[in-house]
Amino acid sequence: MPGPAGHVTIVGMPEAASLPVDDPRPPRKLYRSSDGRWLGGVARGLAGHLGLPVIWVRLAFVGLFMANGLGALLYAAFWFWVPLGVGGVGEQKQPLVGTATAPDGRRRLLARRPEKGQIVALLLMVIVSMVFVGSVNLGSAAKAYLLPAVLVAAGVALVWRQADNARRARWVEVGRRRRTLTLLRAAGGVLLVTAGVSAIFVLQGSAAHLGAVLQAALVVLVGITLLAGPYLVRMTQDLSEERLMRIRAQERAEVAAHVHDSVLHTLTLIQRNADNGNEVRRLARAQERDLRTWLYKPEGTGKDEADEPDTVAEAVRRSAAEVEDKHGVPIEVVIVGDCALDERTGAQMQAAREAMVNAAKYGGEGGAVQVYAEVEGRTVFVSVRDRGPGFDLDSIPADRMGVRESIIGRMERNGGTARLRSVPGGGTEVELEMERAEKTS
Amino acid sequence: MSDATETNGTAGGAETAGAGAAGGGGGRHVRVVLVDDHRMFRTGVQAEIGQTAETGVEVVGEAADVDQAVTVITATRPEVVLLDVHLPGGGGVEVLRRCAALTADTERPVRFLALSVSDAAEDVIGVIRGGARGYVTKTITGTDLVDSIFRVQEGDAVFSPRLAGFVLDAFASTDAPPVDEDLDRLTQREREVLRLIARGYAYKEIAKQLFISVKTVESHVSAVLRKLQLSNRHELTRWATARRLV
């Protein structure tokens, strides 16, 4: 006795399935841009926020700078208060990191190299400030303090940029090698600030006490570190642990939502098609494949079905999945290595797909179709093998173009080779070999 | 991924076993312990392979987590353990670690055959490096499973096409200089054998193709397994680290 159609109740199913997946658009918030910035990313962030060209904002800052250095103050304030974010509004999803396919076929994250523009900008700033200092008459007393002030400012800027980088590194995961560099930079910043402050001190005329004061300051500093250090360490540890837990919980909720949703869907379909064995098998296989990609893929997403495949492995997997779904014959795929698709390998993939279709159509009763793809050096090799009845290539009438044109012809036209081995009663194997095109990117 | 071909045991393998050892349940007998945290699954496997008279497999114990598994295996001393990879208490790798002494025993070794629903590289390579003699997925059919169990009992390795693919992948980057360090590296012949396994050939078919005996194929496969467990070359380590295996 069938229940009400389309209504499935599963006792004891957790509530996680009903988690809100997409929350409403976040309110517009000002971020400094970490991408393509020259100094602190303030101008870029502002430009993104206001929807203005970046150059306008930069010019405005320079203009304001001329007005008694107001621009610099403003910039500093922005730098201080506005958090570093990704892009401006409108380019929020711009990826910070690019993925590139390494020669060995695995995907790697690439951190962007710092742009030359930043160095140019810093030099420009120095020159502008020199001109500014040279042209503006401040009076000799103030002028004496200028150099130390610049020193302090430079030190602060160094350390703050550093903090930004540390923050960015959390997303980008910059390699460990750079840690020494960051330490050096921090030390440099501290040195600059100390020098500046000391200079101001000296200028004030209390040079005699400098040593004693520095010592006292050091003692206080050490004391504070000793007192507050453990708390600080504990706090950061707690914080990172908490963050980890939150990420885990989020991930779990996501998995639960995905699994429940798709499994429920499949179960419903299976209930409706319980009598149709083929359909049930097809559904189960599709579901299994889906879950597998979702659970075991290193990249985790596995949801980019819409766009075209751009590597050999992806193309083979895609074709196999499609043929499997269409013909209901399980296709087992083993892939060794990977490389980007080019024109030749693209043709090879089409030939391979044709071979899979043939194998599924004519050799499907013998069990799973086996697909093996290997990228070794410049050669891409694909073998499609079934355990069906097999056939004799010579006995196929000349007007049947399937194998001859779609597989053998296509491979030869593109400079590859196709071999067909078929033993009547012992299955068929199609071997496709192709050299990759010279230019790979 | 699929039923029939997950072991090499398929058509060719079964015939081999039939030719070599006595076929059916005839002369052979093996004592097996089932380790899996899903009771339903244990019951299913038991029902499928547990008819000792027909299959020659006798299930002498079951366990649902790592501690139980170690206790049961030590107490019953089976010849083959069917080991799930994901277990409460540390997983199959932990069981392997704690039973290392039993596996190393030369007189009556306990051999492990991993039986998992996952065919992810990290799971497969993880338990193989832990010392399992084979790896099959849960979609395997009853007859193939029985065949794999006997294969493992005889000391052979059960390599699925996927497993062969993973191994080839792991050793692929070290392909350039083929001769030096030949103790650690796969020989040309071993690579050939692995490649054919990855293409879905059964041991017997490989033997025919390469004009060698089935026994030679098996020894090549065992050599690969040995290298996989013992090799500490940088590439493999790095590869494993990149996939969060170690």
TrEMBL record, chain B:
- SMART domains, alphabetized: HTH_LUXR, REC
Q: Where is this region: Disordered?
A: 1-25
> Which segments constitute the HTH luxR-type domain?
179-244
Query: What Pfam families does the database record attribute to this sequence?
Result: GerE, Response_reg
Record keyword S-adenosyl-L-methionine present = no
Question: What GO biological process term is on the record, naming one?
Answer: phosphorelay signal transduction system
Tell me which residues bear 4-aspartylphosphate. D84
> What keywords does the record list, in alphabetical order?
DNA-binding, Phosphoprotein, Transcription, Transcription regulation
- Signal peptide residue numbers: none
GO MF annotation: an example:
DNA binding
Q: Where is the composition biased (Low complexity)?
A: 1-19
Q: Which residues form the Response regulatory domain?
A: 31-153
- For whether the record's keyword set contains Cell inner membrane, the answer is no
Give the PANTHER family listed for this entry: NITRATE_NITRITE RESPONSE REGULATOR PROTEIN NARP, TWO-COMPONENT RESPONSE REGULATOR
Identify this protein by name.
Answer: LuxR family transcriptional regulator
Tell me which species this is from: Streptomyces roseochromogenus subsp. oscitans DS 12.976
